[in-house]
Design the sequence.
């Protein structure tokens, strides 16, 4: 069960520093969330769009929410008592395996934060969790070390070939399924290496309105009906089945999708 | 509500003089706000054929503004009539349909395809899109071109539906275009569309937007919108104006009314906060209450009886 999203002025009631990130506990949440869901948070000042902040583990009290904030996103460090406007919980959560499987998590950059509550839930479900983190701005470096069975951190892979090499190494032995988090461009660099493995991705949406009305975070997907169309990361995602995304076309003109679109 | 915020745009009565700008509200906002409480909801621009919209990136933040190159994504007028319009009508909102095309004839065709639909209160013709092919100017750049579109749409639209012409703020003589639209049958003008602009990615040295040129909206363009409203009201005080461009609070809405607007539209503000129309309405209610309680009595009040334009000095 996840709650119906709402938009509210939240008070920061707790702050935990985690490297380049903060985990903010905010009041007034509408109810529980699940791994892969996120909040859309205002930045303040003269910035009009919101930032996608991944939700952390569920806390004891149902009206509290833990939001993982990266300072890369334009939010200055927060202290208790600050107020933020929050829309949450948003998005489709990760689907969880119904058996204790072998799982590979691949996180690239700030979106790796989406994998933290997922890793904890997978371990709690008895899964063997291997984690590969690519990039320096990785909240997961601190948090996933606790949850993952095996953890590899590659701070600064400079080229696509290096990234692919790290992914190939992490696929031996082959997992039962793979979860990725990152931007579409980051994941597109290695997604072909996963072959037919079941694969879910949590995508970085960039600055967003958080409701889907602006249509500023679209990417091409293959629908269950076989037709290609555009999906909004903040509305139809941010978690997708990896095999539904048309990775080669994410950075191209969409004119071939006439008739498509949210 | 403490004040009388009713407005009339041409023959279209609005219970509240605050509407959502084209493409900035839809059923997606229903968890957060009551769309039926808006003065009206203006749809995203409906085109003759389906369009996927522009390539990514489509949005860039700029100081106090947004530069967008979304294009006009949508299912085309047939899909709009069969799928989108019924969903919008079910929200209980008063619906104004924005239409867009690249030729005068296609504007007429889109209007004709809508003419038998229930649930439409008015049309807004988008003749001022800032994101067109390289070297192509919008119809609103020129009084004659703008009037031709209004004629074509008016001919294909039920008499009961007012037609609003949405104009550009970055043309030399906005009032002349507005007056040409009025004379061609527009009941009102909508001022202003996003202003053409560019943002560069300094790492790559190319446009930060997937399609190069964008349209700037938000508080950054508020003074440009206010000047357009002022000038049009000065030259054509009887022509109703729906004013938008950085309206994000009661004060900015009141400014537009004092400059000559009959009602205001909220666009980028809704992308920041889905409750923005409610906030603007509440604040405007208080501000109008402090000034006699009637919004219509304040339209153009800043002109003080003068009809001279502000000239650049």
Sequence:
């Amino acid at each position: 069960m996840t709650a119906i999203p709402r938009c509210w002025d939240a008070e920061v009631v707790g702050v935990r520093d985690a490297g380049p990130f903060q985990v903010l506990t905010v009041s007034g949440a509408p109810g529980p969330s699940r791994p892969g869901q996120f909040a859309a948070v205002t930045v303040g000042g003269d910035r009009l769009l919101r930032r996608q902040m991944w939700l952390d583990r569920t806390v004891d009290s149902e009206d509290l929410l833990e939001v993982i904030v990266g300072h890369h996103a334009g939010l200055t460090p927060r202290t208790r008592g600050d107020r933020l406007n929050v829309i949450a919980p948003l998005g489709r959560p990760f689907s969880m395996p119904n058996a204790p499987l072998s799982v590979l998590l691949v996180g690239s950059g700030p979106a790796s934060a989406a994998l933290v509550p997922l890793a904890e839930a997978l371990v709690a479900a008895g899964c063997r969790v291997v984690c590969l983190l690519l990039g320096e701005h990785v909240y997961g470096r601190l948090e996933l070390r606790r949850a993952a069975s095996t953890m590899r951190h590659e701070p600064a892979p400079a080229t696509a070939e290096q990234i692919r090499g790290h992914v190939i190494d992490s696929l031996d032995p082959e997992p039962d399924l793979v979860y990725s988090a990152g931007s579409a461009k980051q994941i597109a660099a290695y997604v072909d290496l996963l072959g037919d493995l079941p694969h879910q991705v949590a995508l970085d949406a960039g600055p967003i309105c958080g409701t889907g009305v602006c249509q500023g975070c679209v990417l091409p997907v293959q629908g269950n009906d076989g037709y290609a169309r555009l999906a909004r990361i903040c509305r139809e995602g941010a978690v997708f089945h990896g095999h539904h995304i048309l990775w080669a076309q994410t950075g191209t003109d969409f004119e071939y999708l006439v008739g498509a679109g949210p | 509500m403490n004040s009388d915020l009713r407005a009339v745009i041409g023959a279209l009565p609005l219970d509240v003089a605050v509407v959502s700008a084209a493409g900035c509200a839809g059923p997606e906002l229903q968890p957060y706000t009551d769309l039926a409480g808006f003065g009206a909801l203006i749809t995203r621009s409906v085109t003759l054929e389906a369009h996927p919209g522009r390539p990514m990136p489509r949005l860039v933040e700029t100081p106090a503004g947004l530069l967008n190159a979304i294009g006009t994504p949508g299912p085309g007028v047939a899909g709009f009539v069969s799928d989108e319009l019924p969903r919008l009508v079910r929200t209980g909102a008063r619906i104004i349909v924005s239409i867009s095309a690249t030729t005068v004839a296609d504007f007429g065709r889109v209007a004709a395809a809508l003419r038998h639909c229930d649930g439409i209160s008015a049309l807004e013709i988008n003749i001022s899109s800032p994101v067109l092919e390289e070297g192509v100017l919008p119809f609103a750049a020129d009084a004659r071109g703008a009037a031709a579109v209004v004629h074509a749409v008016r001919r294909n639209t039920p008499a009961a539906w007012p037609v609003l012409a949405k104009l550009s703020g970055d043309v030399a003589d906005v009032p002349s275009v507005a007056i040409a639209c009025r004379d061609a049958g527009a009941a009102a003008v909508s001022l202003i569309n996003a202003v053409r602009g560019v943002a560069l990615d300094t790492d790559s040295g190319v446009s930060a937007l997937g399609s190069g040129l964008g349209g700037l909206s938000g508080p950054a363009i508020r003074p440009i919108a206010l000047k357009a409203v002022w000038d049009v009201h000065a030259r054509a005080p009887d022509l109703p104006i729906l004013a938008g461009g950085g309206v994000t609070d009661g004060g900015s809405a009141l400014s537009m009314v004092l400059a000559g607007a009959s009602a205001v539209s909220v666009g980028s503000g809704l992308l920041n906060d889905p409750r923005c129309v409610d906030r603007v309405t509440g604040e405007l209610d208080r501000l109008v209450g402090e000034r006699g309680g009637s919004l219509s009595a304040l339209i153009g009040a800043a002109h003080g009886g003068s009809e001279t334009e502000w000239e650049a000095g």
